[in-house]
Write a structure and sequence with these properties.
The chain is an alpha/beta fold and 535 residues long. It has 16 helices and 21 strands. It folds into 2 domains: 344 residues, TIM Barrel; 77 residues, Golgi alpha-mannosidase II (Immunoglobulin-like, Sandwich). The strands form 5 sheets. The protein has an 8-stranded parallel β-sheet with strand order 11-10-9-5-4-3-13-12. Helix 6 runs parallel beside helix 7 and helix 12 packs parallel to helix 15. The structure holds alpha-D-glucopyranose. Belongs to the glycosyl hydrolase 13 family. This is Alpha-amylase.
């Protein structure tokens, strides 16, 4: 698409949809979603209008962290299917004009990966230096104070070889030593393996963790720590994450992709905005899309979010393409954070902001976090810190397709329980309902894909009342859109600076409003959001 002087790439124009494969669609009755299941749902994804599908890990794994502990980077876990199933899926995605993005987990492997088995076998094994092995301190304690994200120390003692190894996550997920060129070569080969097969890009897991301080300096204490927080938050990970050298590494990964046509590299990065945008790299030679998680992390409050959007727009480097995320498999679902009515406003925000949106599976039907009884918790983060309500299971429950047993997800026993209300809240029930969350998503995606102003146009903030967020989107030579969102439950009033403002409501969270002509003074109900096509 041409917009002024710029040509846009597929991932700039498109909408990404994240699938958590365990929970999308089971095809063989084992209660766990699989690739054939996803294949059977491609018609749905095409109907929804998304451009690209990102799959959370599908590789062989002991599943200590549900696939984020990989024991073979070039295979497919039998739970999910076979390499042939993968090829069939990839081809079918491409036939529909869609793209497929894989999760790449380069920071750590499984402790069952042959590389680690070798590495831990002896101190002089050639792969010893592929991981982060260090001597204990004089008193036998770990090399420094670094903590594991999932609770406890980040160091695990290895009796056989008398050293500690570092794991930012579970002890079953030892961190690779990315300062070692052989590790780089091996992981770049993994990337090429999938790129050669035709995969359209990667979402790179915990990109900001990949390099650690060479001197292993202690992390400082976090003065803002509160007891309800994960124990990891007791320290500020100043020396264990986001080291300057990581940017050289990201550049090298990008060079691997750049040997191919239009492949995409997304970075999973939880960092304050100024540190985040550094991951675009010098001259834009880093990650194409460092994931922007502000909408996930900020309080749902109009002024704070409006300010964050403007700040983000302001600090993006030249040529850096924005992106927005409302949900993923690690965070509470948007519906559970802000409520069902506000979740519609949130969808409107996600799908009308400038930059590539990522939709988490199930959010398009307003799926909620499902309360999982203690004895059914599966997520290691939940199991390791049971009193902190940190389990990620609630946001990972099976997709709700219809009102048949198990919501059409499986004929077996689902690996995680379904929402009690799945018989009412599912794709089938919402598909033809003009007022449903699904219809809202489909229409917003459709509008975004049809209207260059929404797809790739400029973002211009508009002054609004404290309850509201308002902005304009415009691509040269195309109709302008004004978006006004009421983030509160009470009525709110928008007054435009320009008294000649006129437009027609194109999409609204309450569809009754659509088709209405509006002027410079616009009243919004609580939880109301409007997309207005300006004259
Ligand atoms: C990322 C993943 C998360 C996983 C962690 C360790 O944050 O999104 O699910 O547990 O990395 O791999």
């Amino acid at each position: 698409m041409q917009n002024g002087l710029n040509k846009h790439l597929w991932w700039q124009e498109g909408v990404i949809y994240q699938i958590y494969p365990r929970s999308y669609q089971d095809s063989n009755g084992d209660g766990i979603g699989d690739l054939k299941g996803i294949l059977g749902r491609l018609d749905y994804l095409q109907w929804l209008g998304v451009t690209a599908v990102w799959l959370s890990p599908i590789y062989p794994s002991p599943m200590a962290d549900f696939g984020y502990d990989i024991s073979d980077y070039q295979g497919i876990h039998p739970l999910f299917g076979t390499p042939e199933d993968f090829k069939t899926l990839l081809e079918a995605v491409h036939q529909r004009g869609m793209k497929l993005i894989l999760d790449l987990v380069p920071n750590h492997t499984s402790d069952q990966h042959p590389w680690f088995l070798e590495s831990r076998s002896s101190r002089d094994n050639p792969k010893r230096d592929w991981y982060l092995w260090h001597d204990p301190q004089a008193d036998g304690s770990p090399p420094n104070n670094w903590l594991s994200v999932f609770g406890g120390s980040g160091w695990e003692w290895d009796e056989t070889t008398g050293q500690y190894y570092y794991h930012a996550f579970l002890k079953e997920q030892p961190d690779l030593n990315w300062r070692n060129p052989a590790v780089r070569r091996a992981m770049f080969d993994v990337m090429r393996f999938w790129l050669n097969l035709g995969v359209d890009g990667f979402r790179v897991d915990v990109m900001w963790h990949m390099i650690k301080d060479q001197q292993l300096r202690d992390n400082p204490v976090n003065p803002d720590y509160q007891p309800h927080m994960a124990t990891y938050e007791q320290l500020l990970p100043v020396y264990s994450t986001d080291q300057p050298e990581v940017h050289d590494l990201v550049l090298e990964m990008r060079q691997v992709l750049d040997a191919y046509d239009e492949r995409l590299m997304i970075g999973e990065i939880y960092l304050p905005i100024h540190q985040l945008v550094a991951y675009y790299g010098i001259d834009g030679k880093g990650a194409h899309l460092p994931f922007n998680f502000q909408l996930l992390l900020l309080p749902w409050e109009a002024r704070q979010i409006a300010a964050a959007i403007d700040q983000y727009e302001g600090v993006l480097p030249t040529g850096g393409w924005p992106n927005w995320v409302l949900g993923n498999h690690d965070q509470p679902r948007i519906t559970s954070r802000v409520g069902r009515e506000q979740a519609r406003v949130a969808a409107l925000l996600l799908l009308t902001l400038r930059g590539t949106p990522t939709v988490y599976y199930g959010d398009e039907i307003g799926m909620r976090d499902v309360p999982i009884p203690f004895d059914e918790v599966q997520d290691p983060q939940g199991l390791n810190m049971p009193d902190k309500n940190l389990s990620r299971d609630p946001a990972r429950t099976p997709m709700q397709w219809d009102n048949s047993p198990n919501a059409g997800f499986t004929t077996g026993k689902p690996w995680l329980r379904l929402a009690d209300q799945f018989r009412r809240e599912n794709v089938q029930a919402q598909r033809d309902d003009p007022y449903s969350m699904l219809t809202l998503h489909r229409r917003l995606i459709g509008l975004r894909q049809r209207e260059p102003s929404l797809m790739v146009g400029n973002y211009v903030p508009v002054f609004a009342d404290t309850q509201l967020i308002a902005y304009l989107r415009q691509a040269e030579g195309h109709p302008r859109f004004l978006i006004i969102l009421n983030l509160s439950h009470r009525p709110a009033y928008f007054k435009a600076k320009d008294p000649s403002l006129r437009g027609v409501v194109e999409v609204a969270t309450f569809p009754e409003r659509e088709g209405q002509t509006v002027g410079d003074s616009i009243q919004l109900g609580g939880d109301e959001g409007l997309v207005i096509r300006l004259d």
